[in-house]
Amino acid sequence: ARARKAFAPNAARYVEVLAEQPRVAVEETKRESVDAPADREGPAELGRQVLQRMIDFITSGATISVKNSNDRIEYHVQGGNTGVLIGKRGQTLEAMQYLVDKIVSKKFEKRFRLQIDVEDYLKNRRINLENMAKKMGEKAKRTGKPISFGQMNAHDRRIVHIALKADEQVRTQSMGDGFYRKLVIFPKKRNGRKQK
Questions:
Q1: CB contact set of 112 (below 8 Å; sequence gap of 6+)
Q2: For the chain, first and last CA: distance in Å?
């Protein structure tokens, strides 16, 4: 279907109307009523509203609490179908965070550090990744061979890098291209000694 653009008077936005679809009446809205609430409420509230609308399309009964700290906006989602909101390996959660970030940044013409967590999924995942990183680091030191994690997103790779940063016997490196990359833990060679 070919789309044509129709301008709604006094609405300050275009409305896409499909040529073959029945005619849709467009309610006229003044610019002030569209822009003022988001401007008055700020980025944290705009992000909450956008996130709530997304979640309401996916599940019901979910609520969002907002926490502002050190130029970081954190959204904590409770209730609803958490498995669907998180998605496989957290992909739905990542997608929602990406969209909320883009919408808020575009509206206020500034980048904000946003994080969305569902039922402490990210908090628990961080703890699990830190523990796994330490175990894999010990294995790399014990065997003298590189140990590879599967494909990981940037958030998870950062957790592993930080978890092993203080260990002077190993180094970590992301490998590959794109959003999902492998992370490899390399044992550092010990001076004057052969690795076992």
A1: 43, 47, 71, 73, 101, 104, 105
A2: 66
Q: For 161-183, how does the pLDDT look when each residue is reduced to its tens digit (9 = 90+)? A: 999 999 999 999 999 887 788 99
**What amino acid occupies position 103?**
I
Q: Note the pLDDT tens digit of each residue in 126-158.
A: 999 999 999 999 999 999 999 998 888 888 999
